[in-house]
Amino acid sequence: MLPSFLRLAAAACLCLAFAGCTSTASGNNTVMAGAPANATDSLVQPAAFAPSEEGQSRLAKPYFISFRARNAESYGHTFVVFGRLDASGHVPYDSRGVLVPSMTEIAGLHPASTSVVPYMLGHFVPVPSETGASDGDSEKAYLLAEWTIPLTAAQYNEIVPYIHKLQARSPVWNALTYNCSAFVADVARHMGYKTPSPLHLPRDFINDMRKMNT
């Protein structure tokens, strides 16, 4: 019989195939799904802006929310991006394919560490979380799936406070009970959308949610 610590490690590796966010990163187009925001240039800091009158006359729905899944070394990460569209009605990226920080904000649930240990433990018990941008969320190159919905100023003003409240009351992450997809599902259901199981892989979760509602 395997020693208890080996059985625990094997179980953790098995759980990694099902749900939540990964904890390691290496290679091309793979990033740490749960890495908290840091000083990296590619990370989008919360814009925390309110809709203004400027530019609203040109677009009936000048704001947006985007439900997204991005690549990672194992099964990826699910999160939301929201903010103001550019003058052409598109999600704003710069020339490098990185979201424009002054026009966008990112929210997503992930363990509050870059260490592998909390991610492994998070498949058994809740671990402390963060709810902002993680490494790679802002970069178009890592996208696996997205569903972007234009919003009026009134719709935007309604959903953003809810997201901020959800961030404030989501202190823990657990792969099986409340993971990154469950966090995104709460946002989508608040907007009246149907959602699949949060145990789906992030790419499947976003694609299935889009199909369920369109």
Explain what this protein looks like in three dimensions.
By secondary structure, this protein is an alpha+beta fold. The protein has one domain (4-213). The chain has helices at residues 4-15, 116-121, 153-168, 180-190, 202-213, and strands spanning 63-70, 77-84, 104-107, 110-111, 127-130, 143-151, 172-173. The strands form two sheets. The chain has a four-stranded antiparallel beta sheet with strand order 3-2-1-6, with helices on one face. A three-stranded antiparallel beta sheet has the order 4-5-7. The chain is globular. The termini are far apart. Residues 1-25 form the signal peptide. It comes from Jiella sonneratiae. Keywords: Signal.
Low-confidence stretches: 1-20, 22-57
Number of strand segments: 7
Total individual domains:
1
* Helix residue percentage: 25-40%
Work out the strand percent.
15-25%
Structural class, from secondary structure content?
A: alpha+beta
Largest sheet: 4 strands, antiparallel
Label the overall shape: globular
Helix count? 5
Widest beta sheet: strand line-up? 3-2-1-6
Mean pLDDT: 80
Whole-angstrom Rg: 17 Å
Give the ordered list of helices and strands.
Answer: HEEEEHEEHEHH
**Termini gap:** 51 Å
